Protein backbone atom coordinates (compact mmCIF):
# COMPACT_ATOMS: atom_id res chain seq x y z
CA UNK A 1 0.00 0.00 0.00
CA UNK A 2 1.39 3.41 -0.94
CA UNK A 3 1.54 6.38 1.41
CA UNK A 4 -1.07 8.18 -0.72
CA UNK A 5 -3.50 5.30 -0.48
CA UNK A 6 -2.99 4.85 3.25
CA UNK A 7 -3.40 8.55 4.06
CA UNK A 8 -6.46 8.79 1.84
CA UNK A 9 -8.14 5.93 3.67
CA UNK A 10 -7.29 7.38 7.07
CA UNK A 11 -8.71 10.77 6.11
CA UNK A 12 -11.84 9.13 4.70
CA UNK A 13 -12.25 7.30 8.01
CA UNK A 14 -12.24 10.62 9.82
CA UNK A 15 -14.71 12.46 7.59
CA UNK A 16 -17.06 9.49 7.90
CA UNK A 17 -17.08 9.61 11.69
CA UNK A 18 -20.38 10.59 13.36
CA UNK A 19 -20.72 14.14 14.67
CA UNK A 20 -20.39 12.83 18.24
CA UNK A 21 -16.75 11.93 17.54
CA UNK A 22 -15.54 14.80 15.36
CA UNK A 23 -16.41 18.49 15.38
CA UNK A 24 -17.60 20.25 12.21
CA UNK A 25 -14.41 22.30 12.11
CA UNK A 26 -12.23 19.19 12.34
CA UNK A 27 -14.26 17.48 9.61
CA UNK A 28 -13.87 20.49 7.30
CA UNK A 29 -10.11 20.66 7.82
CA UNK A 30 -9.72 16.95 7.08
CA UNK A 31 -12.05 17.26 4.09
CA UNK A 32 -9.93 20.08 2.62
CA UNK A 33 -6.81 17.90 2.74
CA UNK A 34 -8.70 14.92 1.32
CA UNK A 35 -10.15 17.09 -1.44
CA UNK A 36 -6.66 18.17 -2.48
CA UNK A 37 -5.54 14.54 -2.69
CA UNK A 38 -8.64 13.60 -4.72
CA UNK A 39 -7.68 16.12 -7.39
CA UNK A 40 -4.69 13.98 -8.32
CA UNK A 41 -5.72 10.49 -7.14
CA UNK A 42 -6.09 7.52 -9.48
CA UNK A 43 -9.64 6.64 -10.65
CA UNK A 44 -9.69 3.44 -8.56
CA UNK A 45 -8.95 5.41 -5.38
CA UNK A 46 -11.54 8.07 -6.21
CA UNK A 47 -14.14 5.35 -6.83
CA UNK A 48 -13.38 3.73 -3.47
CA UNK A 49 -13.76 7.02 -1.60
CA UNK A 50 -16.93 7.89 -3.52
CA UNK A 51 -18.56 4.61 -2.49
CA UNK A 52 -17.76 5.29 1.15
CA UNK A 53 -18.96 8.90 1.13
CA UNK A 54 -22.19 8.04 -0.68
CA UNK A 55 -23.39 6.25 2.45
CA UNK A 56 -22.61 9.10 4.86
CA UNK A 57 -25.32 11.59 5.78
CA UNK A 58 -22.69 14.05 7.07
CA UNK A 59 -20.22 13.75 4.21
CA UNK A 60 -18.40 17.02 3.33
CA UNK A 61 -20.52 18.73 0.65
CA UNK A 62 -17.61 20.23 -1.29
CA UNK A 63 -15.90 16.88 -1.63
CA UNK A 64 -19.18 15.25 -2.60
CA UNK A 65 -19.75 17.80 -5.37
CA UNK A 66 -16.27 17.22 -6.77
CA UNK A 67 -16.74 13.47 -6.87
CA UNK A 68 -20.30 13.81 -8.23
CA UNK A 69 -18.90 15.80 -11.18
CA UNK A 70 -16.11 13.30 -11.74
CA UNK A 71 -16.30 10.65 -14.45
CA UNK A 72 -19.52 8.68 -14.25
CA UNK A 73 -17.78 5.58 -12.90
CA UNK A 74 -16.61 7.62 -9.91
CA UNK A 75 -19.78 9.69 -9.53
CA UNK A 76 -22.36 6.90 -9.88
CA UNK A 77 -22.77 5.85 -6.20
CA UNK A 78 -22.97 9.46 -5.05
CA UNK A 79 -25.49 10.46 -7.71
CA UNK A 80 -27.67 7.49 -6.99
CA UNK A 81 -27.89 7.61 -3.22
CA UNK A 82 -25.86 10.31 -1.43
CA UNK A 83 -28.28 12.06 0.93
CA UNK A 84 -25.86 14.88 1.70
CA UNK A 85 -26.18 16.36 -1.81
CA UNK A 86 -28.38 19.45 -1.73
CA UNK A 87 -30.79 20.55 -4.44
CA UNK A 88 -28.29 23.23 -5.45
CA UNK A 89 -25.60 20.56 -5.80
CA UNK A 90 -27.85 18.43 -7.98
CA UNK A 91 -28.84 21.42 -10.13
CA UNK A 92 -25.17 22.25 -10.71
CA UNK A 93 -24.42 18.64 -11.62
CA UNK A 94 -27.40 18.58 -14.00
CA UNK A 95 -26.04 21.68 -15.74
CA UNK A 96 -22.38 20.64 -15.88
CA UNK A 97 -22.53 16.84 -15.96
CA UNK A 98 -22.91 14.38 -18.79
CA UNK A 99 -25.97 12.45 -19.90
CA UNK A 100 -25.29 9.55 -17.53
CA UNK A 101 -24.96 11.97 -14.61
CA UNK A 102 -28.40 13.42 -15.33
CA UNK A 103 -29.90 9.97 -15.85
CA UNK A 104 -28.67 8.93 -12.41
CA UNK A 105 -30.16 12.06 -10.83
CA UNK A 106 -33.47 11.48 -12.61
CA UNK A 107 -33.65 8.00 -11.08
CA UNK A 108 -32.87 9.01 -7.49
CA UNK A 109 -35.34 7.86 -4.89
CA UNK A 110 -36.45 11.46 -4.31
CA UNK A 111 -36.14 14.30 -6.83
CA UNK A 112 -37.45 17.73 -5.80
CA UNK A 113 -39.41 20.12 -8.00
CA UNK A 114 -36.44 22.44 -8.51
CA UNK A 115 -34.10 19.61 -9.48
CA UNK A 116 -36.72 18.22 -11.86
CA UNK A 117 -36.98 21.64 -13.47
CA UNK A 118 -33.21 21.73 -13.94
CA UNK A 119 -33.22 18.28 -15.54
CA UNK A 120 -35.99 19.29 -17.94
CA UNK A 121 -34.10 22.47 -18.85
CA UNK A 122 -30.83 20.73 -19.65
CA UNK A 123 -31.81 17.15 -20.37
CA UNK A 124 -32.45 15.09 -23.48
CA UNK A 125 -35.64 13.21 -24.21
CA UNK A 126 -34.27 9.99 -22.72
CA UNK A 127 -33.31 11.77 -19.49
CA UNK A 128 -36.73 13.43 -19.21
CA UNK A 129 -38.46 10.11 -19.82
CA UNK A 130 -36.45 8.59 -16.97
CA UNK A 131 -37.60 11.47 -14.76
CA UNK A 132 -41.25 11.05 -15.77
CA UNK A 133 -41.06 7.32 -15.04
CA UNK A 134 -39.77 7.97 -11.51
CA UNK A 135 -42.62 8.00 -8.94
CA UNK A 136 -40.27 9.67 -6.46
CA UNK A 137 -39.79 12.72 -8.68
CA UNK A 138 -41.94 15.79 -8.17
CA UNK A 139 -42.90 18.18 -10.95
CA UNK A 140 -43.95 21.78 -10.47
CA UNK A 141 -46.89 23.00 -12.53
CA UNK A 142 -44.56 25.27 -14.51
CA UNK A 143 -42.39 22.26 -15.38
CA UNK A 144 -45.42 20.36 -16.63
CA UNK A 145 -46.31 23.37 -18.79
CA UNK A 146 -42.79 23.34 -20.23
CA UNK A 147 -43.07 19.62 -20.95
CA UNK A 148 -46.39 20.21 -22.73
CA UNK A 149 -44.63 22.62 -25.08
CA UNK A 150 -41.86 20.09 -25.69
CA UNK A 151 -44.37 17.30 -26.35
CA UNK A 152 -45.42 19.05 -29.57
CA UNK A 153 -42.01 18.10 -31.02
CA UNK A 154 -41.23 15.05 -28.86
CA UNK A 155 -44.28 12.80 -28.98
CA UNK A 156 -42.57 10.21 -26.75
CA UNK A 157 -43.05 12.61 -23.83
CA UNK A 158 -46.83 12.27 -24.00
CA UNK A 159 -46.71 8.68 -22.68
CA UNK A 160 -44.86 9.73 -19.53
CA UNK A 161 -46.87 12.90 -19.01
CA UNK A 162 -50.25 11.17 -19.13
CA UNK A 163 -49.33 9.00 -16.13
CA UNK A 164 -48.08 11.82 -13.93
CA UNK A 165 -50.16 12.65 -10.85
CA UNK A 166 -49.25 16.35 -11.24
CA UNK A 167 -51.14 16.63 -14.53
CA UNK A 168 -54.15 18.94 -14.21
CA UNK A 169 -57.28 18.84 -16.41
CA UNK A 170 -56.41 22.07 -18.24
CA UNK A 171 -52.94 20.70 -19.01
CA UNK A 172 -54.35 17.33 -20.07
CA UNK A 173 -56.80 18.96 -22.46
CA UNK A 174 -53.94 20.98 -24.00
CA UNK A 175 -51.86 17.80 -24.36
CA UNK A 176 -54.78 16.05 -26.10
CA UNK A 177 -54.04 17.76 -29.42
CA UNK A 178 -50.46 16.42 -29.51
CA UNK A 179 -51.40 12.78 -28.80
CA UNK A 180 -52.17 9.71 -30.85
CA UNK A 181 -55.45 7.83 -30.60
CA UNK A 182 -54.45 5.63 -27.67
CA UNK A 183 -53.18 8.51 -25.57
CA UNK A 184 -56.29 10.56 -26.34
CA UNK A 185 -58.48 7.75 -25.09
CA UNK A 186 -56.43 7.54 -21.87
CA UNK A 187 -56.71 11.29 -21.32
CA UNK A 188 -60.46 11.30 -21.80
CA UNK A 189 -60.91 8.35 -19.44
CA UNK A 190 -58.94 10.10 -16.72
CA UNK A 191 -59.81 13.78 -17.11
CA UNK A 192 -63.25 13.97 -18.75
CA UNK A 193 -65.35 14.42 -15.61
CA UNK A 194 -68.81 15.77 -14.91
CA UNK A 195 -69.52 19.22 -13.46
CA UNK A 196 -72.37 18.30 -11.11
CA UNK A 197 -70.54 19.63 -8.06
CA UNK A 198 -70.05 22.99 -9.79
CA UNK A 199 -73.62 23.11 -11.06
CA UNK A 200 -75.04 22.39 -7.59
CA UNK A 201 -72.83 25.08 -6.03
CA UNK A 202 -73.83 27.70 -8.62
CA UNK A 203 -77.54 26.89 -8.93
CA UNK A 204 -78.72 30.09 -7.24
CA UNK A 205 -75.93 32.21 -8.74
CA UNK A 206 -77.30 32.07 -12.30
CA UNK A 207 -80.44 34.18 -11.63
CA UNK A 208 -78.46 36.52 -9.38
CA UNK A 209 -75.83 37.13 -12.08
CA UNK A 210 -78.53 37.68 -14.71
CA UNK A 211 -80.14 40.41 -12.58
CA UNK A 212 -76.96 42.37 -11.94
CA UNK A 213 -76.23 45.55 -13.87
CA UNK A 214 -73.62 45.94 -15.16
CA UNK A 215 -72.82 42.28 -15.75
CA UNK A 216 -69.75 40.85 -14.05
CA UNK A 217 -67.73 39.56 -17.03
CA UNK A 218 -65.51 37.32 -14.91
CA UNK A 219 -68.49 35.60 -13.29
CA UNK A 220 -70.16 35.40 -16.69
CA UNK A 221 -67.23 33.44 -18.13
CA UNK A 222 -67.21 31.13 -15.12
CA UNK A 223 -70.95 30.47 -15.38
CA UNK A 224 -70.65 29.81 -19.11
CA UNK A 225 -68.25 27.02 -18.21
CA UNK A 226 -70.51 25.63 -15.49
CA UNK A 227 -73.98 25.75 -17.08
CA UNK A 228 -75.65 22.65 -18.49
CA UNK A 229 -76.76 24.14 -21.82
CA UNK A 230 -74.14 24.10 -24.56
CA UNK A 231 -75.86 25.45 -27.67
CA UNK A 232 -76.54 29.10 -28.39
CA UNK A 233 -80.35 29.34 -28.50
CA UNK A 234 -80.38 32.97 -29.63
CA UNK A 235 -78.15 32.10 -32.58
CA UNK A 236 -80.48 29.24 -33.57
CA UNK A 237 -83.49 31.58 -33.61
CA UNK A 238 -81.71 33.88 -36.07
CA UNK A 239 -79.97 31.22 -38.15
CA UNK A 240 -81.10 30.59 -41.73
CA UNK A 241 -80.52 26.86 -41.03
CA UNK A 242 -82.69 26.79 -37.92
CA UNK A 243 -80.32 24.67 -35.85
CA UNK A 244 -76.86 23.17 -35.63
CA UNK A 245 -78.24 20.03 -37.29
CA UNK A 246 -79.47 22.14 -40.19
CA UNK A 247 -76.07 23.78 -40.64
CA UNK A 248 -74.30 20.39 -40.65
CA UNK A 249 -76.76 19.00 -43.18
CA UNK A 250 -76.21 22.03 -45.40
CA UNK A 251 -72.44 21.53 -45.14
CA UNK A 252 -72.88 17.90 -46.22
CA UNK A 253 -74.73 19.09 -49.32
CA UNK A 254 -72.64 22.11 -50.31
CA UNK A 255 -69.32 21.78 -48.49
CA UNK A 256 -67.71 23.63 -45.60
CA UNK A 257 -67.72 27.25 -46.70
CA UNK A 258 -66.22 29.89 -44.36
CA UNK A 259 -69.72 31.21 -43.75
CA UNK A 260 -70.99 27.78 -42.71
CA UNK A 261 -68.06 27.19 -40.38
CA UNK A 262 -68.72 30.55 -38.76
CA UNK A 263 -72.42 29.74 -38.38
CA UNK A 264 -71.75 26.27 -36.92
CA UNK A 265 -69.35 27.74 -34.35
CA UNK A 266 -71.97 30.30 -33.34
CA UNK A 267 -74.67 27.66 -32.99
CA UNK A 268 -72.40 25.37 -30.98
CA UNK A 269 -71.38 28.33 -28.79
CA UNK A 270 -67.64 27.87 -29.33
CA UNK A 271 -64.86 29.92 -30.85
CA UNK A 272 -64.53 29.64 -34.60
CA UNK A 273 -60.80 28.94 -34.23
CA UNK A 274 -61.63 25.91 -32.06
CA UNK A 275 -64.05 24.52 -34.64
CA UNK A 276 -61.47 25.06 -37.38
CA UNK A 277 -58.92 23.15 -35.33
CA UNK A 278 -61.39 20.29 -34.84
CA UNK A 279 -62.15 20.11 -38.53
CA UNK A 280 -58.45 20.11 -39.43
CA UNK A 281 -57.43 17.60 -36.75
CA UNK A 282 -55.97 14.29 -37.97
CA UNK A 283 -58.41 12.24 -35.85
CA UNK A 284 -62.15 12.23 -35.36
CA UNK A 285 -62.15 12.46 -31.57
CA UNK A 286 -62.53 16.26 -31.30
CA UNK A 287 -65.58 16.23 -33.56
CA UNK A 288 -67.02 13.36 -31.51
CA UNK A 289 -66.62 15.48 -28.38
CA UNK A 290 -68.35 18.39 -30.12
CA UNK A 291 -71.30 16.37 -31.35
CA UNK A 292 -71.82 14.62 -28.02
CA UNK A 293 -71.54 17.88 -26.06
CA UNK A 294 -74.12 19.59 -28.25
CA UNK A 295 -76.60 16.70 -28.26
CA UNK A 296 -76.18 15.80 -31.92
CA UNK A 297 -76.88 12.30 -33.23
CA UNK A 298 -74.37 9.67 -34.26
CA UNK A 299 -75.50 10.20 -37.83
CA UNK A 300 -74.61 13.88 -37.67
CA UNK A 301 -71.18 12.92 -36.37
CA UNK A 302 -70.61 10.64 -39.36
CA UNK A 303 -71.84 13.34 -41.72
CA UNK A 304 -69.55 15.93 -40.16
CA UNK A 305 -66.56 13.56 -40.35
CA UNK A 306 -67.19 12.89 -44.04
CA UNK A 307 -67.64 16.59 -44.76
CA UNK A 308 -64.35 17.33 -43.01
CA UNK A 309 -62.59 14.65 -45.07
CA UNK A 310 -61.81 12.39 -42.12
CA UNK A 311 -61.45 8.83 -43.41
CA UNK A 312 -60.41 5.62 -41.68
CA UNK A 313 -59.35 5.09 -38.96
CA UNK A 314 -60.87 8.33 -37.68
CA UNK A 315 -64.53 7.19 -37.74
CA UNK A 316 -63.75 4.18 -35.54
CA UNK A 317 -61.99 6.34 -32.96
CA UNK A 318 -64.71 8.97 -33.18
CA UNK A 319 -67.48 6.39 -32.68
CA UNK A 320 -65.75 5.06 -29.57
CA UNK A 321 -65.54 8.53 -28.01
CA UNK A 322 -69.13 9.34 -28.97
CA UNK A 323 -70.45 6.07 -27.53
CA UNK A 324 -68.50 6.12 -24.26
CA UNK A 325 -68.49 9.79 -23.30
CA UNK A 326 -71.50 11.25 -21.49
CA UNK A 327 -72.94 14.59 -22.57
CA UNK A 328 -71.82 16.28 -19.35
CA UNK A 329 -68.25 14.95 -19.63
CA UNK A 330 -68.06 15.91 -23.30
CA UNK A 331 -69.15 19.42 -22.37
CA UNK A 332 -66.39 19.61 -19.76
CA UNK A 333 -63.77 18.78 -22.40
CA UNK A 334 -65.26 21.12 -24.99
CA UNK A 335 -65.44 24.00 -22.54
CA UNK A 336 -61.86 23.51 -21.40
CA UNK A 337 -60.79 23.81 -25.03
CA UNK A 338 -62.96 26.85 -25.60
CA UNK A 339 -61.95 28.38 -22.27
CA UNK A 340 -58.29 28.23 -23.23
CA UNK A 341 -59.10 30.50 -26.19
CA UNK A 342 -61.29 33.00 -24.34
CA UNK A 343 -59.73 33.43 -20.88
CA UNK A 344 -57.41 36.44 -20.50
CA UNK A 345 -53.66 35.79 -20.66
CA UNK A 346 -52.07 36.11 -17.19
From TrEMBL:
Record-linked Pfam families: DUF2336 (PF10098)
Protein name: DUF2336 domain-containing protein
InterPro entries registered for this protein in UniProt: DUF2336
Amino acid sequence: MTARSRLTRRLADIVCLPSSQVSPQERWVVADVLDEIMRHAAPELRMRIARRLAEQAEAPPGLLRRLALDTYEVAEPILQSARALTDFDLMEIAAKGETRHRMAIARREHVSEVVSAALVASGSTSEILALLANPGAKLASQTVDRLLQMAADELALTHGLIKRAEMRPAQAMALFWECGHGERRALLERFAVGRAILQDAAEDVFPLAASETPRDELIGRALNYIERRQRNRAAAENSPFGSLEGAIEEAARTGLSPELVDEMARLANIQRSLLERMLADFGGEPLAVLTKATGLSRGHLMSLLQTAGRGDPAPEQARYVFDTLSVDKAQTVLRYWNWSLTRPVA
